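User: tokens in, sequence out, please.
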């Protein structure tokens, strides 16, 4: 089948789309992406071996209502260009939108031309593009149960399907032994992994500096901390690690091989973005989650509850990181292998590692009718 995928803007939209595309390609389907070459998809999609069709659109600024006119014109123009392309090369059998505004022309064209399409929502609080396109979708696939109420249609309980948030195979294939070898962490050590997403998290970096003494007093503990590129110098100055301490505390601006590093960890301290939640659950790693407090509609807290409700994570507010209870909880987990084991089993029980296959099943079903 010929499958069109619209995803763009952020890694949170693009990486789940690439995970689905990998699964569909392995099933023998032809996958083409639609997005903006000048944005992140212009780098990530070709790197993964998929073609990208240029769709030039812009969203609108709600504080400047008049920008809606130019936005609507660009959507109309993009649909016209897609119509010409599909007339010449043939239409897709099915399309999938991953929530960015770039999906609107593609899915709008599909709606007008009776081509089935699906939308996939990564977050617990859906974005505007998916809410706009959901009504006419064959299926709305969600990552966490909290998003269901937004998309449910009266009299059609099967319209919304919980598939999970697809994770790329390079992450799911993470290996504990390989990760520890790359990090130089002994097999019998306890490893705490700290990261705040691609931009880091100042609160987490400050919290770790405050807990340095307590953490290094735990026998056999190793720490790998990703500060974010912009926060590295400040975090390094705050920690002021001696050579001996640095042998146990690996401070770095970012992590490349996230799959292996996650697989190597015994506990993760992280923000609660949709991609982070998906990857942590897919690898089955116990976690302590500190949602970004300024996320739209506090959606990171709702994201986090997908893991906390299952018993796979602990949740702390941003302002609680500097309170004594946070340090007590973190240290308590690190010193309680039995509880970490139970949390790992709970995370694995969510089945997040099969999300790409579950979503691909829905795509094939929609295409067949």
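Assistant: Sequence out:
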């Amino acid at each position: 089948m010929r499958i069109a995928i619209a995803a763009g803007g952020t890694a949170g939209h693009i990486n789940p789309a690439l995970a689905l595309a990998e699964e569909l390609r392995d099933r023998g389907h032809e996958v083409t992406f639609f997005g903006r070459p000048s944005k992140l998809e212009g780098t990530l999609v070709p790197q993964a071996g998929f073609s990208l069709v240029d769709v030039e659109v812009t969203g609108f600024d709600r504080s400047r209502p008049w920008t809606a006119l130019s936005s609507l014109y660009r959507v109309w123009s993009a649909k016209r260009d897609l119509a010409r392309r599909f007339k010449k090369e043939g239409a897709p059998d099915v399309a999938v939108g991953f929530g960015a505004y770039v999906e609107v022309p593609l899915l709008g064209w599909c709606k007008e031309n009776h081509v089935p399409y699906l939308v996939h929502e990564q977050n617990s609080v859906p974005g505007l593009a998916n809410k706009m396109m959901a009504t006419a979708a064959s299926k709305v696939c969600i990552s966490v149960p909290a998003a269901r109420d937004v998309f449910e249609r009266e009299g059609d309980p099967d319209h919304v399907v919980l598939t999970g948030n697809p994770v790329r195979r390079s992450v799911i294939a993470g290996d504990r032994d390989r990760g520890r070898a790359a990090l130089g962490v002994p097999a019998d050590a306890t490893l705490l992994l700290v990261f705040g997403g691609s931009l880091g998290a100042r609160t987490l970096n400050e919290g770790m500096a405050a807990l340095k003494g307590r953490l290094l007093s735990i026998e056999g503990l190793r720490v790998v901390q990703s500060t974010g590129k912009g926060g590295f110098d400040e975090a390094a100055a705050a920690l002021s690690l001696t050579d001996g301490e640095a042998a146990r505390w690996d401070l770095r601006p970012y992590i490349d091989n996230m799959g292996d590093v996650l697989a190597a960890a015994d506990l993760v301290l992280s923000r609660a973005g949709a991609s982070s939640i998906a990857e942590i659950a897919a690898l089955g790693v116990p976690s302590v989650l500190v949602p970004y407090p300024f996320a739209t509609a506090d959606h990171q807290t709702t994201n986090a509850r997908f893991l906390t409700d299952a018993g796979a994570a602990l949740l702390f507010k941003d302002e609680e990181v500097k309170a004594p209870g946070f340090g007590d909880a973190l240290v308590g987990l690190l010193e309680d292998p039995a509880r970490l084991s139970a949390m790992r089993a709970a995370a694995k029980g969510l089945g997040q590692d099969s999300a790409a296959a579950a979503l691909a099943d829905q795509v094939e079903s929609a295409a067949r009718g």
